[in-house]
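Title: Request for sanity check on Rop family plasmid primer RNA-binding protein prediction

Description:
We are preparing a figure and want to confirm that the structure record we downloaded matches what your pipeline produces today. Could someone re-run it with the sequence below and paste the raw structure tokens into this thread? We only need the token string, no images.
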Amino acid sequence: MTKQQKTALNMAKFIQNQSLLLLEKLNELDLDVEADLCEKLHDDAEHLFRT
């Protein structure tokens, strides 16, 4: 794995973790549309991290 690939994986993991925190806050604020978008971002980052 190249350094660039490792960096991309680290970024995907970071986005995954941060989007989960953001999702919790958006749900607390009852911002459903934004929470749905954030959940999609989280899922996409998780998918990238797995591949």
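Thanks, this matches our download. The chain has one domain: 3-50.
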